[in-house]
Amino acid sequence: MTVDPTAPAAEELLSDGTRIHRMGVTYVLGRMVIAPLARLIYRPRVEGKHLVPRSGPVIFASNHLSFIDSIAIPVAAPRRVHFLAKSSYFEGSGLSGWASRQFFTSIGAIPVRRGAGQAALDALDQQRALLEAGSAVALYPEGTRSVDGRLYKGRTGVAFLALQTGAPVVPVGLIGTDKVMPKGATLPSPRHRITVKFGQPLDLSHHGDSSSGRARRGATDEIMAAIHALSGQELAGAYNEVQPQSPIERIKQALPHERR
Questions:
Q1: pTM
Q2: Could you tell me the pLDDT band of residue 100, with boundaries at 50, 70 and 90?
Q3: φ, ψ dihedrals at 78, nearest 5°
Q4: Measured between alpha carbons, how far is 130 from 137 in angstroms, rounded to an integer?
Q5: Which pLDDT score, from 0 to 100, does residue 23 have?
Q6: Do the Cβ atoms of 151 and 234 come closer than 8 Å?
Q7: Which is nearest to 61 in space by CA: 219, 215, 259, 178?
Q8: pLDDT digits (tens, 9 = 90+) for 219-240
Q9: How far apart are CA 105 and CA 89, in angstroms?
Q10: What dotted CATH number matches 10-254?
Q11: Do 9 and 21 contact (CB within 8 A), yes or no?
């Protein structure tokens, strides 16, 4: 599949029926305007950029400290990066809705409905389709932002995609994004600087097939060890679980299961 960078953002139907969003002129302009402006204002320190493959499918697997992590990675990376964002960011009306759609499209975001069941499968399909098209995607193995700055155990979804598609995983260590924009802040602060560290690409194929739970777990642990080596965070030794809201959810969370 080829992508015309001057075309408007659109959906393309692949041969297996998967709909894949492609980036158009808004994304190109975003990289031309937003990325240099962000580098000028926030002066990010970027390490290991030369390690990032310039072509072919790549998964950026990063720790997650702040909302702006999904901006920091595309700004620092030497190639286009896509990530999934809540569909609500693209569905607003009026001027504010238009501005939100333009901004998130300009930084490589792709709308997806979050949740379990079919929504989670649709998200995996979207990521797989992007990788099979030769694109780069950014994902957070922890699942959600760290509430206390520690690095939590990784869920196996990133490893599943890597093993299924054969895409190399580039570990990313983000440092200081939680100071630039802590939880609850409406705008990032220019008083602090962030560091983005790209690590050596990981070939995870030696762990086995994506259908093996042991292979997914082993590959996930290797990814998290590489992220930890870059970020230097304290290890939490647990999953970053969302607090269950009902008795049934608490029971399901307590039962043994593979964290995707």
A1: 0.80
A2: confident
A3: -85, 10
A4: 7
A5: 56
A6: yes
A7: 219
A8: 999 999 999 999 999 999 999 8
A9: 10
A10: 3.40.1130
A11: yes
